[in-house]
Write a structure and sequence with these properties.
By secondary structure, this protein is an alpha/beta fold. Helices cover 42% and strands 18% of the residues. It is globular.
């Protein structure tokens, strides 16, 4: 069985993430979305909130599950018995970071391959960081995130005042 891990912070999940997930779901028999609890970033949403925002998006994928993980990605992939890690590349600016991470992961665990997938053109500029910045200033997020995520963003930023 071909099983991949699609890791990320997903703070929040965007249509770009879901596009990569859709591509991964067609390539692999099983996909595990790994939500990084401690990614070294300062997330707006807790890992549990990110998981809850993602769950409704997975309904159409019976062979996809989402879990929260800690620690090294390759250790998580091994524990999940995955043979690949899938990573989305939006632009050339993503490549250097992702390439170096893939080489480190290969060094740590040569049996786990990294596969790069490009999202659809419509999502090539969409990032969680840009979504949060636009949402903070009242921007319409309907073209970038699912409705439940847009509502969660409004809730966070309305609460900030």
């Amino acid at each position: 069985m071909r099983h991949c891990i699609y890791p990320g912070t997903f703070d929040p999940i965007t249509f770009g993430h879901l596009d990569v997930l859709d591509r991964a779901s067609r390539l692999f028999d099983r996909v595990t979305v790994g939500i990084a609890r401690d990614s070294g970033k300062n997330p707006l949403f807790t890992a549990e909130e990110r998981l809850e925002m993602l769950r409704p998006c997975l309904v159409k994928y019976p062979h996809v599950q989402a879990v929260i993980f800690n620690g090294l990605l390759v250790d998580f992939a091994t524990a999940q018995q995955a043979n690949a890690i899938i990573r989305g590349l939006r632009a050339l600016s993503d490549f250097e970071f992702e390439f170096n991470m893939a080489l480190m992961n290969r060094h740590l665990r040569p049996t786990v391959e990294t596969i790069f997938v490009m999202p659809g053109e419509a999502y090539s500029y969409c990032s969680s960081t840009l979504v949060k910045q636009a949402a903070r200033h009242g921007g319409d997020m309907a073209h970038f995130v699912p409705p439940n995520v847009a509502a969660a963003l409004r809730g966070k930023f309305c609460a900030e005042g």
